[in-house]
Amino acid sequence: MSEQTPDYKDTLNLPKTDFPMRAGLPKREPEWLARWEEIGIYDRLREKTGRESFTLHDGPPYANGNLHIGHALNKILKDMVVRSQQMMGKDARYIPGWDCHGLPIEWKIEEKYRKKGRDKDAVPVVEFRQECREFAAGWVDIQRDEFKRLGITGKWENPYLTMDFHAERVIAAEFQKFLMNGTLYQGSKPVMWSPVEKTALAEAEVEYHDKESFTVWVKFQVVGTGDATLDSAKVVIWTTTPWTMPSNKAVVYGAGISYGLYEVIGRPEECWARIGERFILSDALAEDVLGRARLEPSMYRRLCDITSEDLAKIQLLHPLHGVEGGAGEWDDIRDFRAADFVTDSEGTGFVHCAPSHGMEEFELYRDLGMLEQVITYNVMEDGRFRADLPFFGGKAILKPNGKEGNANGAIIEKLAEVGGLLARGKIKHSYPHSWRSKAPVIYRNTPQWFAAVDKPVNDGQDTYGKTIRERALTSIDELVTWTPPTGRNRLYSMIEARPDWVLSRQRAWGVPLTCFTKNGSLPTDDDYLLRNEEVNARVLEAFEAEGADAWYKEGAKERFLSGIVAPEDFTQVFDILDVWFDSGSTHAFVLRDRADGSDDGLADLYLEGTDQHRGWFHSSMLQSCGTQGRAPYRGVLTHGFTLDEKGMKMSKSIGNTVSPEDVTRQYGADILRLWVAQSDYTSDLRIGPEILKGVADSYRRLRNTMRFMLGSLADFTPSDQVAPEAMPELEQWVLHRLTQLDATVREGYSAYDFQGVFQALFQFATVDLSSFYFDIRKDVLYCDGDTAERRAARTVLDILYHRLTTWLAPVLTFTMEEVWLERHPEEGSSVHLQDMPQTPSRWSNPDLAEKWSSIRKVRRVVTGALEVQRREKNIGSSLEAAPVVYVSAEVAELLKSVSFADLCITSGIEILTQAAPEAAFVLEDTDGVAVSFAKASGEKCQRCWKILPDVGQHSHAGVCGRCDAALR
């Protein structure tokens, strides 16, 4: 610039905005949270009338600890559903809830007692329950603040709690429906039992981990066949649970398995097999079994087949039969028969049966009507053998800390002592553990309360089936939409094969099974359970006023029964309901009973992790099919688990956990929300420092796009708007793209495809806008005067602003509010009170889109050629160029219909249809386009920096004609 040329910088329309490049989210997000609370966003949205309702019913987390990254994933997904549905025109309701009963909270109180040396059993049950209630309430407050910090919208000041008095009343009332319709019964069968926690567990409360177990091969003496060959033989079984041997009542075989009789003819020095001993084994497994006994193939021989006729004659003696000191405990003959579940894939071809500790064996003998002959009660609630069991009384299967007890060792030692052991070893296998205590569980036969899933409910709600199972399977296929669709198969197969539902738990903190049993009656008697509506009503009235504690107060039985039946004729049940029944009943006291529940008592969506196919989705389905004849939900969405960056499960001991608090403190909650939106939630999601850096980079690029729009829209008013039909083609092309995106966004949000929505918007913002449209229109926006072209560009920016802020608000909750308030700072204003604007279909222009697709292909070759020149330092800026473009006549006509030099951000351009020079630049993937480089001729305009021949020939020094006009 010469001394005579003025500085034109102040004459440019440079962006004006206070919107900072650096977000500062960790500091600023709490300010927006406070603002939303002050203006009451959630309640103000409820004031919008005439809208179709949409209800996402919250699966309640346990109120017993700080949030982990899985909680954040779950709640953010829910929030994106609720916000997107609301902004698409629905009344989207979300009532957060908490599961407040159950073992996790009891354990925390018991831990406190243990530290103080206090005996839990000495504490009055109502006092203990009150401590549990206070503990849960404290964590509800903590978790509520943690969830709100993530930008989750909802009725936070009035959540639902399963421990609220009304909730406890409704849970009891829902249980009473099972009582009254006859599906409730008391039975005795093996259930998964935690000796550490002293309670039965549901499948959803169990997780599988590798465990090293003792394994033994045990001999059962054959007797009673009348065949000397057989009576001298022994049947060999294999088990990984030696502790079940004292409860053995039978051995079973496979009807289709080939068996042989094997004789020992040699032995090593250390071996429990004796020369001359004969063993009946599966032929497929004999070599393996005898090898475990340290016998080489040369040390035994196969004598003959053992036929089905031979097997039918066999009776067996327990290895401890007749043993001194056994007090006749094992002297009965063991049953021996075929069973369908026996295979020859591992073991010996025979299965030892302790029906008190195995479901398959239990069902076999139940169907045979022989349970009374085979059920034992040897294992107590703490996992110890009953005190009077010979040899093993008081021995523990597990220690109180969940480690291996002394029972297995004692049993193996005794079997070896009496000659009943053939081999022993250890095996590492997948084994069920309590997900709370992390201790192994056992199968234990105990009296429990069940809901029969195959008994007709007889409640007049048979549209979808007569039994709970029929109703559930029909609901899964006919009434529920599954996202992803594979969720249907998981729940269907689980419910199709499941046994009756175990409702009872032997704990204190929960809703009790509000029922009474008649003294002197048996569980199979019709009058065993008191079914009386007046008694039920008394109980429910007390629960509404006092909560479930009323059941445990002194004189409760008399209070509920007196004047209706004789209290002394009945026993009060003190088991509590499975907490999955609590949470499975939430549809009743939230969706049905609350004024802000749902219109028909059903949820549009349940959304949880994939583990909830056996948890909340499952129990809610069973409970609802038993009480209202159908599923409580119309849609189910499942997400995967969170893993570290390497795909490993997160563990505090490994040190690879990522906490939501740490992420929000370092990056802000919007980065965590963006991580969720960018991820495929249908599979497991990875997160870690490097992944979060990538997310933050995507956020920065998107923020820059929004900042450019804000800067260019400073002082824009409605009077500046231009009608779409009066806009240049480039602006009309942008409007066409918006019609496509509008459909993508709405369809994506409706299908809960947040990743698809965000990818489409991010691609549009960073490629179509920042790298193309904005790049081209900067010249017009900055340098033009009040031209029609500049007005059109700003009109499009305003249209883009209103769509991008609302389209992205469900994901970037805080940032889009910041963007919105830059232009709408008035009191009470919020992007979250807006709906997504309707995009007129008349903006759609496929022919124009096709034309501009061709133009952009040619532009890409031009910019590629200029990049080579820039790299070789022939030019510094594309405005120094005036390239020559060689295309077909048809394409040339397209290019000449627009200002192609402006599109390429060059000072000039020449379009030719002749053959291109050999040295011309081409791109392999774009046929028919070549570019030769040429420098622009003329002088550099000191205002817009284009190099043009007319610079310096106007009234304003050193500028081109366009800038001279702008300066007038």
Unreliable stretches (pLDDT < 50, length at least 5) are none
Query: How much of the sequence is in beta strands?
Result: 15-25%
Number of strands: 33
Structural class: alpha/beta
Largest sheet: 7 strands, mixed
Outline type: elongated
- Mean pLDDT comes to 94
Rg over CA atoms, rounded to whole Å, is 38 Å
Question: What share of the residues lie within helices?
Answer: 25-40%
Question: How far apart are the termini?
Answer: 21 Å
- Output the number of helix runs: 30
Strands, helices and their partners?
Layout: H1 25-39, H2 41-46, E1 53-57, H3 69-87, E2 91-93, E3 97-98, H4 103-116, H5 125-149, E4 160-161, H6 165-181, E5 184-194, E6 199-200, E7 206-223, H7 228-231, E8 233-239, E9 250-253, E10 259-264, E11 278-282, H8 286-292, E12 300-306, H9 308-313, E13 315-317, E14 335-338, E15 350-353, H10 359-367, H11 371-374, H12 407-417, E16 421-434, E17 442-451, H13 468-478, E18 481-483, H14 486-497, E19 501-502, E20 504-505, E21 516-518, H15 533-546, H16 556-561, E22 570-572, E23 576-577, H17 579-584, H18 586-592, E24 605-609, H19 616-627, E25 635-639, E26 642-643, H20 660-666, H21 669-678, E27 685-686, H22 689-712, H23 729-750, H24 754-783, H25 788-808, H26 813-823, H27 846-871, E28 884-886, H28 889-896, H29 900-903, E29 910-912, E30 921-923, E31 926-932, E32 939-940, E33 947-948, H30 961-967
Parallel strand pairs: 1-2, 1-24, 3-4, 8-11, 9-14, 18-25, 24-25, 26-27, 28-29
Antiparallel strand pairs: 5-6, 5-17, 7-8, 7-13, 7-16, 9-15, 10-11, 10-12, 17-19, 20-23, 21-22, 28-31, 30-31, 32-33
Helix pairs in contact: 1-26, 3-21, 4-5, 6-15, 6-18, 13-14, 13-19, 20-21, 21-22, 22-24, 22-25, 22-26, 23-24, 23-25, 23-27, 24-25, 25-26
